[in-house]
Every structure is written in structure tokens, then in C-alpha cells.
Design brief:
10 helices, single chain, alpha/beta, 8-stranded mixed β-sheet
Length: 304
């Protein structure tokens, strides 16, 4: 044999698997909630890579839960039907007609496509919405603009999470794929819920090891728009001080991360979904990618 072991084509793969072993041992049986949004939802190659990565996590011994958005798909269907796309206070104004579109697109289109993609790599995914088994209960959200309440229609604030259905699916080795819809505690109607908020609420209720928010930026920037330097790590208190300075698009994500780590989630991370296999990169590399939010030191000691 003339070639040395180090020259074998499979050596790099073997080394990668070996490097992942300590992480795999540490996270066996742990729950991770992953919110899929942004460019990764409309790019076919990225969606397929995401689906494969989710199945890999499951076979590696983790318990992934997927929460998805669907803004571009909802916009397209509203336009097709001649309905206006309107946002107020950073929220989609959701009239009864718009709610019909939101519900159809999230539960009938986006969710079904994700379930199908994941099941190509392993027959594990099960689709559900927050309204199923009253997993998510909400009340009408009323934002304030210039000191006045604003009606944004059927947009909900989550008031209760029942993890019973999710617990059963996870115990059976399934991968739940959740659409961010909730049943109203006030009128029994179905409400539109921000997907970042839904992911954070589910991660907290499930006592997840990690919450991962996939988006279209590399992480939280320091001094944006004057700098594109990514802040790699923040404690909960450090993030809380930054929240008033953040752009509208980052506020629900970072607020969700803050609420999650203060609610018992081990860590929350915002990562760039435009990077193929970004979920695995943040899981299996020493420094990860994006911005990670961790509990304050005193909170971390209490959680232990």
C-alpha cells in the first residue's frame, strides 16, 4: 500500500465525524427549536439542504422542532387575489379575508412543502399548526402608534402554550413542523402570530436546549448601518440594553431570543439562512455562526 492513511479520501469525513462526537454525546435527547424564515424559504437548494440537516439532527439523537414563516408566499397569494398588502407598527394587517390567505398559505402550502422535503430524507416530519390541540392560545394584539391604539386585525399575542401534542410527537421520534397560527382565547377565531414569537414561546415551554432563528443577515450587527461587524455573543442583559436601537425586522427575533433564554432555554442564536447547512455549522463548530444569546451569569447558575 503506497498511500498513507492521511491521504485516503475518506479521512476528512472520518475526522469531521470524530470532531462532532463530544457535541453529540452532550446533546443526546435534547430539544432544539428552529425557526425557518427569509431567503432559505424561497431558495430550492437551501430548502433541501435545511430539510436534510433537520433529519441529520434527528438521527444524531436530537429532538428538532421546526417553526416556519411564510411572508413572501403570503404576499404573492394576496396579490394574486387582488388584496392589499399592508403593515402597521411593523405587523401585517390581517383582515378576515387576509386571515383566510394566511391560514391557507401557512398550513396548506408552506408547511406541506416542508413536511414533504423533510420526509424525502426520513419519514419523520408531521405538520401541525398552533391551533391544533390548542397548542398556542392567543389574544388580539393591539399596538400603539403615536399614543393611539391601532387595529391590525387578527394578529395575536400568545398567552398560553400546551405542549401535549408536541411532547407525544417528540416521544415517538417525529419531527413537528409548526405553522404560527393560534386559537383566540377571546372569540375562538384563529389568529396570525409572528413566527419568531411562536418559536420563542414553544422553545420556552418545551425547555429546549437551544432556539435557532434563521434569517437573511449574518447575525446582529454592531453599529448597523455604519458597520457590518457581527456581534458574536451577548448576555440577556446586554441584549436588553440594545433592543431600543434595533431595526424593526430584528426586534421580534431578538425579543424572542431574550424571552427564551430568560425562560429557561439554554441559548438562542440568530444565524444566516442564506448559508447552506448553517444549522449544522452553528451546532458542530466551536464558535458557531451568527449571534448567540446566553443567560446572564447568575441566571445560568440558577438554571444548573
Amino acid at each position: 500500500m503506497t498511500a498513507t492513511a492521511s491521504m485516503h479520501p475518506a479521512m476528512a469525513k472520518a475526522q469531521s465525524i470524530g470532531d462532532a462526537l463530544p457535541w453529540l454525546a452532550r446533546h443526546q435527547g435534547r430539544t432544539v427549536v428552529i425557526k425557518l424564515g427569509g431567503h432559505a424559504m424561497v431558495n430550492e437548494e437551501l430548502k433541501a439542504a435545511f430539510a436534510r440537516d433537520i433529519v441529520f439532527l434527528r438521527y444524531a439523537g436530537l429532538r428538532p422542532v421546526v417553526v416556519h414563516g411564510g411572508g413572501p408566499q403570503i404576499d404573492a397569494e394576496l396579490a394574486r387575489r387582488g388584496l392589499e398588502r399592508e403593515f402597521r407598527a411593523g405587523l401585517r394587517v390581517t383582515s378576515p379575508a387576509a386571515m383566510d390567505v394566511v391560514r391557507m398559505v401557512l398550513a396548506g402550502q408552506v408547511q406541506r412543502e416542508l413536511v414533504g422535503l423533510i420526509n424525502r430524507f426520513g419519514p419523520l416530519a408531521v405538520g401541525m399548526t398552533g391551533e391544533d390541540a390548542d397548542t398556542l392560545t392567543a389574544v388580539r394584539h393591539v399596538p400603539w402608534i403615536d399614543g393611539e391604539p391601532v387595529d391590525v386585525g387578527r394578529v395575536g399575542d400568545i398567552t398560553r402554550v400546551d405542549t401535549g401534542a408536541l411532547d407525544s410527537l417528540l416521544a415517538d421520534g417525529r419531527i413537528p413542523v409548526v405553522s404560527p397560527l393560534a386559537r383566540s382565547a377571546e372569540d375562538g377565531l384563529v389568529y396570525n402570530v409572528n413566527a419568531d414569537t411562536a418559536a420563542a414561546a414553544l422553545a420556552t415551554a418545551l425547555r429546549a436546549e437551544a432556539l435557532v432563528m434563521m434569517t437573511d443577515v449574518a447575525g446582529l450587527y454592531a453599529g448597523w448601518p455604519h458597520s457590518d461587524e457581527v456581534i458574536r455573543r451577548l448576555t440577556a442583559c446586554e441584549l436588553e440594553k440594545l433592543l431600543p436601537e434595533l431595526s424593526d425586522g430584528m426586534v421580534p427575533k431578538m425579543t424572542g431570543c431574550l424571552q427564551a433564554v430568560r425562560g429557561g432555554v439554554g441559548a438562542a442564536r440568530v444565524i444566516d439562512g442564506r448559508v447552506p447547512h448553517s444549522v449544522l455549522l452553528q451546532m458542530f463548530t466551536e464558535d458557531g455562526v451568527g449571534t448567540v444569546i446566553v443567560p446572564d451569569p447568575d441566571e445560568a447558575e440558577i438554571l444548573r
